[in-house]
Amino acid sequence: MKIILTNEVSGLGAAGDVVEVRDGYARNYLVPRGFAIRWTKGGEKDVEQIRRARKIREIATIEQANEVKGQLEGVKVRLTVRAGDQGRLFGSVTPADIADAIKAAGGPDVDKRRVELGAPIKSLGAHQVSVRLHADVAAKIDVEVAAA
């Protein structure tokens, strides 16, 4: 099935790319979650608009990405959340929470869609999170989750 990506999908492409994927992957995962729309001749017009919006948000060069990476890796990120007696969280820490915590800690403004969690953060303690800044550059950030 031919689709147009509306968000960056790791291993598949960036927003505005037209890609061919399996029908089930598109129907059951990409389209319902808003990562893609079905390709149509009318939808082809939307591709340019999506690409323009991506260029505005995107870090243009590898040098800029490395500069932002240096800023991110120097930031101490600490989140305070509600937790139970055994250290289990009520809910989980989301990429939006991490992006807000980076901003509050004095770091650069990071788009929540760029924050990649290996697994959901559902416990107290130190966790490592990746922030994809450019196709070739990713920053590793240590996030400390503490009880409120």
From TrEMBL:
Entry similarity comment: Belongs to the bacterial ribosomal protein bL9 family.
InterPro entries membership: Ribosomal_bL9 (IPR000244), Ribosomal_bL9/RNase_H1_N (IPR009027), Ribosomal_bL9_bac/chp (IPR020594), Ribosomal_bL9_C (IPR020069), Ribosomal_bL9_C_sf (IPR036791), Ribosomal_bL9_N (IPR020070), Ribosomal_bL9_N_sf (IPR036935)
Keywords carried by this UniProt record: Ribonucleoprotein, Ribosomal protein, RNA-binding, rRNA-binding
Location of the Ribosomal protein L9 domain: 13-40
Name used for this protein in its record: Large ribosomal subunit protein bL9
Role this protein plays: Binds to the 23S rRNA.
DNA damage is among the record's keywords: no
Gene3D superfamilies: Ribosomal protein L9, C-terminal domain, Ribosomal protein L9, N-terminal domain
GO cellular component: ribosome
